[in-house]
Write a structure and sequence with these properties.
Largest sheet of chain B: 9 strands, mixed
Order of helices and strands of chain B: HEHEHEEEHEHEHEEEHEHHEHEEEEEHEH
Structural class of chain A: mainly alpha
Number of domains of chain A: 1
Strand content of chain A: under 5%
Oligomer: heterodimer
Helix content of chain B: 25-40%
Structural class of chain B: alpha/beta
Number of strands of chain B: 18
CATH class of chain A: Mainly Alpha
Helix content of chain A: over 70%
Distance between the termini of chain A: 49 Å
CATH architecture of chain A: Orthogonal Bundle
CATH topology of chain A: MetI-like fold
Shape of chain B: elongated
Number of helices of chain B: 12
Number of domains of chain B: 4
CATH superfamily of chain A: MetI-like
Shape of chain A: globular
Strand content of chain B: 15-25%
Order of helices and strands of chain A: HHEEHHHHHHHHHHH
């Protein structure tokens, strides 16, 4: 009987585990079935590199949105990565325990703020600032980059910090014993050793940024044109779906799913890169030992 | 002991499993069953612009007819029209005029929604021509200084692809040119309004009813000197408005018709007006000269259509008795009237159908000087329409009759002209309705 119970519980867990993977499979299949026909009829090259998006008039080109996604994500990385990595170094190496106990929960809280609140704040605070001091409509790559840069901070900080803390104590002790200063030890020993973790942190942060929708709908301006400067409005792949799904029917809807496929592929690539980097480096370190 | 317990628990688990199974079954069957409609159910689908208003109407209607179920869904104007055509929905909602290919469907306008071109209240520009608005949204004009404002770039804000407001704006303003892809896109009227209220260089378009809503003000531009105001939509001088239509495959019957009639009733109109829409007379002021009825070349179908528009307007106010007016300032005038009676050759609807018959008569009444309300001597009945004339596809059989047949004066009056706008004014005054 006991055996049976063991088996049963095993099966139940298996079933539940399968259901989560099944959800992935279901969504993937659905997106592909819905989106592929339009890619096929438009042509992959014309779809990905097409410059005009006018789905109700039968024009499906998402290149401006790909550029938009790349620009905003890059901007978010420029804003968020230095701040995030430095914050992680500070927390792992410099911060006294008391300060750390304030910072960590605060950063976790940052992760808990809903994205729509970020967007709203951006729309009412960041956008007018940009409009008043830098010109343009305010809704811009810059606004999106700032908002997303802040939003990806918790991801970058926590993963980078963990990878710094996970380093063997001997690294730092050895470096200090060799007469290095604290900063020298961080710069030339700890950071290179934790490189893989930090890079993974950055890539996961970027993954978050590229997938974010609600906040950027509100601050990006959503114009479907190639931007000339960081003060121009753009549309990203995610916002394209978010903004037009309400009315889409027929081919238009398929085109939105096809946008989803492109986004899906990009994020898959990013995530597998992150995994590859972390894994690859671990092997290296093993070899060095 | 332990073993027994375990067995027990196990049994329970099995029981739960079975229960779960049944629950799942139940849910599934509920899913399938929900596909069946109750007997008195009207499905309405289409434009998301009309949707909120239709929902409010449906709610009010439900209070009056507890047995009927009105199911209101979105989907967009085109989807709604397709659904109505295919029968998937009883009534389709559209926030744009019907295209040529859709003209064979039955449709009725429940209200008009003006579109206002809005700017920041601090913007010195207060008046643009339609051409200027078009050039601004196409980004042929990019600086406010080109239209009499300060030397700042214009921030153009549009709605997203597929939105009814956008397509209405494209139809009414853009014509052949296109809204620039560089225009900022926002997904709702509210978002456009919010942006414009905070950006002194922005320009956008929203539903006229929403200009006054909200905490921070925006300024609606005059269009070629015409104030963006409800009364100007009503009198036809402000050209940026779109119809909110109910569309059906054919003239609806039963519950669907009851709902349409509710939407057009004074109560329905009151609700729509309260929500900021424009109801009542706002047909384009095309002067319609009363034709000489025996002219074989006259476009009676066109005339019929125009009269039908007028009929739609006055219908909610028409009771089952005489509703007419006679003359203005002592002069005989065009009369668009309504008189219904069963079985009488005189009983008439305009654009409607006589009870118990397949013919509807469209009458023109050009009253001679008379104060006899029952039967003014100058009435001329010129058109009678057979909706169900089977031997002609999609054509409306029209026959003409003179009424009254004696007397010479009808010829004279048959040429008396008046616009429907003018006709309405007189009618409304006579009935005590205010615009």
């Amino acid at each position: 009987m006991k055996k049976f119970r063991e088996k049963l519980s095993g099966r139940i867990f298996l079933a539940l585990a399968i259901s989560s993977v099944a959800a992935l499979a279901l969504i993937t299949v659905f997106i592909l079935v819905q989106g592929l026909p339009i890619i096929k009829s438009v042509g992959l090259i014309d779809f990905v590199f097409g410059m005009t998006w006018a789905p109700t008039q039968g024009e499906f080109g998402i290149f401006p949105m790909i550029v938009g996604s790349v620009a905003v994500t890059l901007g978010a990385a420029i804003v968020g990565v230095p701040v995030g990595v430095c914050c992680a170094i500070f927390l792992a190496e410099f911060a006294p325990a008391a300060l750390r106990n304030v910072f960590r929960p605060a950063i976790q809280l940052l992760a808990g703020i809903p994205s729509v609140v970020y967007g709203f704040w951006g729309l009412l605070f960041v956008v007018p600032l940009i409009r008043d001091y830098l010109g343009g409509p305010g809704l811009s790559i810059l606004a999106g980059s700032i908002i997303l840069g802040i939003m990806i901070l918790p991801t970058i900080i926590s993963i980078a910090e963990v990878s710094l803390l996970a380093l063997p104590r001997q690294y730092k002790e050895g470096a200090l014993a060799l007469g290095m200063t604290h900063w020298q030890a961080i710069k030339s020993v700890l950071l290179p050793a934790a490189k893989s973790g930090i890079v993974a942190a950055v890539i996961l942060g970027i993954g978050r940024a590229i997938g974010e929708t609600m906040a950027v709908i509100m601050v990006l301006g959503n114009a479907v044109a190639l931007p000339g400067s960081i003060l121009d409005p753009v549309r990203t792949l995610t916002t394209n779906i978010g903004i037009e799904m309400g009315y889409a029917a027929g081919e238009h809807q398929q085109a939105l799913f096809a946008t989803g496929i492109v986004l899906f592929v990009v994020i898959m690539l990013l995530n597998s890169t992150a995994q590859y980097i972390t894994r690859g480096n671990k092997v290296n370190r093993g070899k060095k030992k | 002991m332990r073993n027994k317990n375990a067995e027990c628990r196990n049994k329970n688990a099995k029981c739960r499993n079975i229960k779960f199974f049944f629950m799942a079954l139940l849910m599934l069957s509920a899913l399938f069953l929900s596909g069946c409609r109750p007997e008195h159910s009207v499905v309405i689908a289409g434009s998301t612009s009309v949707l909120p208003y239709a929902e409010i109407l449906a709610e009010a209607y439900a209070h009056l007819h507890a047995a009927d179920e009105i199911d209101v869904q979105g989907g967009g104007s085109s989807a709604g029209i397709t659904a109505a055509e295919s029968g998937a929905a009883d009534i389709g909602m559209s926030s744009r005029s019907l295209k040529e290919s859709e003209k064979h469907l039955w449709s009725i306008e429940i209200a008009k929604d003006g579109l206002a071109v809005i700017v920041h209240p601090g913007n010195p520009v207060a008046d643009l021509t339609l051409e200027q608005v078009r050039a601004v949204f196409a980004r042929e004009i990019t600086s406010w200084s080109q239209v009499g404002g300060a030397d700042y770039d214009i921030n153009v804000i549009a709605r997203e692809e597929g939105s009814g407001s956008r397509s209405a704006f494209e139809d009414l303003v853009m014509g052949e040119s296109k809204i620039s892809p560089r225009a900022i896109v926002q997904a709702s009227n509210g978002a456009v309004r919010q942006l414009v209220s905070g950006d002194k260089n922005a320009i956008g378009f929203i539903s006229l009813g929403l200009v006054e809503e909200g905490e921070k003000p925006v300024k609606a531009l005059r269009l070629g000197g015409v104030e963006a105001a409800r009364e100007n939509v009503v009198n036809g001088t402000y050209s940026l408005f779109r119809p909110f239509l109910f569309v059906c495959a054919r003239e609806p019957e039963g519950d669907a018709m009851a709902f349409v009639e509710f939407a057009l009733s004074p109560e329905g109109r009151r609700i729509l007006e309260a929500e900021g829409l424009v109801t009542g007379p706002s047909t384009t002021p095309e002067p319609t000269t009363v034709p000489f009825i025996t002219d074989p070349n006259f476009d009676y179908i066109g005339l019929f259509k125009r009269l039908e528009g007028v009929w739609n307007v006055i219908r909610p106010y028409a009771d089952n008795e005489y509703n007419y007016f006679f003359y203005r300032n002592g002069e005989p005038n065009l009369f668009v009237g309504y008189y219904e009676s069963e079985g009488s050759d005189f009983g008439t609807l305009i654009g409607g159908r006589s009870k118990g018959e397949n013919t509807a008569q469209l009458i023109f009444m050009i009253p001679a000087v008379s104060e006899e309300p029952e039967r003014p001597p100058g009435w001329i009945e010129i058109v009678s329409v057979d909706f169900n004339s089977l031997d002609s596809d999609n054509e409306i059989g029209i026959q003409f009759e003179n009424y009254p047949r004696e007397g010479e004066n009808w010829r004279t009056f048959a040429y008396a002209g008046a616009t429907f706008e003018e006709a309405w004014d007189v009618y409304a005054n006579a009935r005590g309705y205010t615009n």
